[in-house]
Write a structure and sequence with these properties.
Phosphorylase Kinase, domain 1; 27 strands; globular; 6-stranded mixed β-barrel; 4 domains; alpha/beta; Rossmann fold; 7-stranded mixed sheet; Dimethylsulfoxide Reductase, domain 2
Length: 737
């Protein structure tokens, strides 16, 4: 008995303890990480969580977010039953209803809007997580709506757009084979711990690292050269590096001659950006610019590792990233081993070494068979390159009702705080005739806007298909039964498709049959995956060749890598787009608006990622929240000394749009004149400081990471109700940063 008690206290699996290990994945950091989980189960409950050693993506490791899985799954804020609003919208008054009543209410309202206004007046939104997106997008199109929207409208798509404008297809960094890595605007030690481990291994093998980051981040601490630029000046830095490469003859002349378009005009424009001018614009010393350009150009092969959104969260974001990716063409590091290698995505934004029919599944209709998508007329490049409506334009169309009204929304994991100018977005959602939200937790978005709320499962309570760049694939099985009355998102979508009488053979066949159809070209089946609950290597993974453009050209209008974009040139007269990667300072900046800068001298960056949070998803958890319990702003010590601010003081951050009050955190990692604030604390509405139309004109991405503000010590302590919020710990799984 003593031995058994010791084994129980140690949570040792076995028949005598009744503890078993079940395999699953963590999808909090969706979609790139998806770390494997070993869940220790006793009496149907998770009692311990570890990383799965056999999963090649995380190899047994877990970050603080994954380690807090039990708190995430068993949190008191879980939505336990379907709910129906009984008070005025925004009152937060709901009563439990049956699943049948909730689903029938949604069905009747969506059909009503479809009949009165057309199917395009219904929007379908997806936040986190991503596993159900192919099913939801197919359902939306069969319903007749082109308006499938996601958080991609503020996340990775603009970065991909910059690569497509340059090369036609995006390429990811081949870290394992690179000899030099230019880490541009990302800190994987906070956002991608699975990559951070590989970076440290590669550095021990001799990898040279250049980091571009306004902060002295953990990634910058590992760099051979840290280019600490002012926020929003990335394009000027890239052009200045190109100036060095071209003028010192460090570029690949054969590649330029045979495979590029517009180099002469680009070369002429680059001459304006000497390292000295680069220093004046970016704050990076000219000698560092020269050293970084030479290291990247000479050390072969070399790759660029971009962040999903930091560089494009500026009003000049697409041009910034385009200028950076052009360095790959200059040095002939595109689509080669150790460079930025191109391989097709297999499923849910990830390359897995196999071909699927995901794109065919998502698009049963052509877009020209439906009404124009939200944002089609405002962001034509987005609409031609990507298959979603533009979420940032949603509130504008709700208000104007042009070219048609938006009347209803079915949302999974929406966070209205994702949008700039929160009051404008809130007013927009309140104008809708009907809103239904499925989520794991009772979030602010649910309370304020939903007419029907549906309880969704976490990843450990459902089955889902995922794949990994390591040529690994998994179809998870539920480790525990769905808690309370929660259901998997896909089950909700398929039941609604049935009630809406969409009569689609694939949706009607069910989730697993749909997945088999998607996977058919790969030879992988769901039945086979079920036999390997922890996942399995992809059988006979495809080995893609280098330099695929030699046979098929580049997927650009010219068929070549474009230093001058024919795509953007087409819209130059109507939209004013520059056909070259022209550098223009952020819309609100010391350079562009010097008069404003006199009153608002600081550069505000609202996109700071903290290691224990992803968006706002884990802010409610005791473990992760305890690591950073109060909303704060990072300030340079010199600025604090000048302003008489000490650590922990209440400070007011103001823009012409509004103000918030947070705690001061003195941090040497921050440049003088810059203030960094995390956007996800519910107590402060950081995005209320940004105007609704403060965005990049090409991508539509908000300029979260460079606008002007002033900072002053707050005399009246506490969060102001006008700009803050309740002292709740809630958050939305739909948030993104």
């Amino acid at each position: 008995m003593k031995n058994l008690n010791e084994r129980l206290r140690g949570k040792i699996p076995g028949p005598d303890t009744g503890i078993e290990i079940k395999k699953s994945i963590c999808t909090i950091c969706d979609p790139d990480s998806q770390c494997g989980l070993d869940l220790y189960i006793k009496d149907g409950k998770i009692i311990k969580v570890e990383g799965s050693k056999e999963n090649p993506h995380n190899e047994g490791t877990l970050c603080s977010k994954g380690a807090a899985t039990r708190q995430y799954v068993y949190h008191n804020d879980r939505i336990k039953t379907p709910l129906k609003r009984v008070g005025p919208r925004g009152s937060g008054k709901f009563e439990p209803v049956s699943w049948d009543e909730a689903l029938e209410t949604i069905t009747n309202n969506l059909d009503k809007v479809k009949t009165q206004f057309g199917p395009e007046s219904v929007t379908f939104f997806s936040g986190y997580s991503f596993w159900y997106r192919p099913i939801l997008q197919r359902m939306a199109q069969i319903f007749g709506s082109p308006n499938f929207l996601t958080n991609a409208s503020v996340c990775h798509i603009a970065m991909i757009m910059s690569q497509i404008l340059t090369f036609g297809l995006p390429g990811g960094p081949d870290i394992r084979n690179a000899k030099c890595l230019l880490v541009w605007g990302t800190n994987p030690f906070h956002s991608r711990t699975d990559i951070a481990r590989h970076l440290l291994d590669a550095k021990e093998r001799g990898l040279k690292i250049i980091t571009v980051d306004p902060r002295y981040s953990p990634m910058a601490a590992q760099a051979d050269i840290h280019l600490q630029l002012r926020p929003g000046t990335d394009g000027a830095l890239a052009l200045s590096m190109a100036h060095v490469m071209i003028n010192e003859g460090l570029y690949d002349q054969d590649f330029i001659r045979d495979h590029t378009y517009g180099f002469d005009e680009y070369q002429k424009y680059v001459q304006e950006f000497s390292p000295k001018k680069g220093e004046n614009l970016t704050g990076v010393p000219a000698e560092k610019i020269r050293a970084a350009a030479r290291l990247f150009a000479i050390t072969k092969p070399a790759a660029i590792m971009p962040g999903s959104s930091p560089v494009v969260h500026h009003t000049n974001g697409v041009q910034n990233h385009w200028a950076a990716f052009a360095l790959l063409g200059l040095t002939d590091n595109y689509d080669i081993s150790g460079g930025n290698f191109v391989e097709p995505l297999s499923y849910i934004y990830q390359p897995g070494g196999f071909i699927s029919r995901e794109e065919d599944f998502k698009h049963p209709k052509k877009f020209d068979e439906m009404a124009p998508r939200i944002g089609d007329d405002k962001f034509p490049v987005w609409s031609q390159l990507f298959d979603e409506a533009h979420a940032i334009h949603l509130p504008f169309q709700i208000h104007t009702e042009k070219p048609y009204p938006i009347k209803a929304m079915l949302a999974f994991g929406i966070n209205y705080r994702m949008w700039p100018d929160l009051d404008f977005m809130a007013e927009s959602l309140e104008k809708l005739d009907f809103v239904a939200i499925a989520d794991i937790f009772m979030t602010e978005s649910c309370k304020r806007f939903a007419d029907i709320i549906l309880p969704a499962c976490t990843s450990v309570e459902r089955s889902e298909l995922r794949c990994y760049p390591e040529r690994y694939v998994i179809y998870t099985q539920p480790a525990i039964k769905p808690l309370y009355e929660s259901r998997p998102d896909v089950e909700i979508i398929l039941e609604l498709a049935k009630r809406l009488k969409l009569n689609d053979p694939l949706l009607s066949s069910g989730f697993e049959a749909s997945l088999d159809w998607i996977l058919e070209p790969s030879g992988i089946t769901i039945e086979e995956l079920k036999k390997n609950p922890g996942g399995m290597p992809v059988p006979n993974p495809i080995k893609f060749p280098e330099r695929k453009y030699l046979k098929q050209g580049f997927r650009t209008p010219s068929g070549k890598m474009e230093f001058k974009s024919l795509f953007l040139e087409k819209y130059s007269d109507l939209f004013g787009y520059d056909a070259l990667p022209v550098y223009r300072p952020p819309k609100y900046s010391h350079e562009a608006t010097p008069d404003m800068a006199k009153d608002y001298p600081f550069i505000l960056n609202t996109g700071t990622r903290l290691p224990m949070f992803i968006g706002s998803q884990t802010f409610r958890l005791p473990w992760t929240r305890s690591l950073s319990p109060e909303p704060s702003a990072d300030l340079n010590p010199d600025d604090c000394l000048r302003l008489g601010i000490e650590r922990g003081d209440d400070i007011k951050i103001s823009t012409p749009k509004g103000s918030i009050v947070v705690k001061a955190n003195i941090a040497n990692m921050v440049q003088p004149g810059v203030v960094h604030v995390s956007p996800a604390y519910i107590e402060v509405k950081v995005n209320s400081l940004i105007e609704a139309d403060y965005f990049d004109p090409i991508s539509g991405f908000p300029g979260y990471k460079s606008l002007l503000c002033k900072v002053e010590k707050e005399k009246n302590a506490g969060i102001k109700k006008r700009h803050g919020g309740p002292s709740a710990r809630g958050s939305d799984r739909g948030s993104s940063d």
